[in-house]
Design goal:
binds S-adenosylmethionine; 7-stranded mixed beta sheet; alpha/beta; 24% strand
Amino acid sequence: MKTETQPDYQAVTETQRATWASGDFHEIARQNVVMAEALCEAADPHPGERVLDVACGSGTAALVAARRYCDVAGIDYVPALIERGRGRAAAEGLEVDFRVGDAQALPFADASFDVVLSIYGVQFAPDQEKAAGELLRVCRPGGRIALASPMPKGWSGDFFATHGRYNPPPPGVKPPLRWGTEEGVAELLGEGSRSVENEPRRALQYYRSVEHAVDVFTAYFGPTIRAAEVAGAEGRERLREDLEAVFTRYNRATDASAVVENTYLLTVATRA
Ligand SMILES: C[S@@+](CC[C@H](N)C(=O)[O-])C[C@H]1O[C@@H](n2cnc3c(N)ncnc32)[C@H](O)[C@@H]1O
């Protein structure tokens, strides 16, 4: 009988960590504020509840919860982003327990949190079953796991597919877009949850122009930086053109600016 060999998740995680560290996601995170607000509205953490933001980047969702007087922790495996998060919290006079760590091995005890959040974060962990198990493990029974996940259809799907043409995904690793499908998220969280509710939601991203949008991603988004490196000098120009085409496809502005429509899956799972 043929057995499937498992990908080397540790090696893939290390490559991905280096990729995210090569950019500065904080410069892009402003576009995620609207998703952070939507997640907190959906999961509704109350003052005093314990909230974890997984793969928090510079802490955009963590800060929304902290403004509600929740007791908040945020974890990401890029130390520079955790430092950014600490700086943002200090600037607002908020307290957040920001820590460096991996979404596939959360450094928290079982049932430590009432609410667990992740925006386009945990979805990138290569060992999806392990990462989903960690979300469920640290959430208390009856607690809420709220996710904003990239969907295969729409800007996110086209954007990540474009990157994949230049820097193919590691063999055997399931795509992050799996979290953005009802079937995928049910496979990942269904067994440990009392209920899993999904709703596609729209989020607009604002740039001075389509060219400016591509400039921002080329300068600061780790996966774009990596795809450009792999593409080489010639491929880089084509990558840029392809990305401009994706941003243009979803641009809803009627002036010279870019108002890019993204559709994401908002999931709220209630822990069994
Ligand atoms: C698209 S950014 C989103 C960041 C943040 N959630 C936000 O909305 O601003 C993806 C983030 O996931 C982090 N990340 C990806 N895989 C991770 C993992 N296995 N463990 C911890 N962080 C991870 C990256 O470092 C990056 O900060």
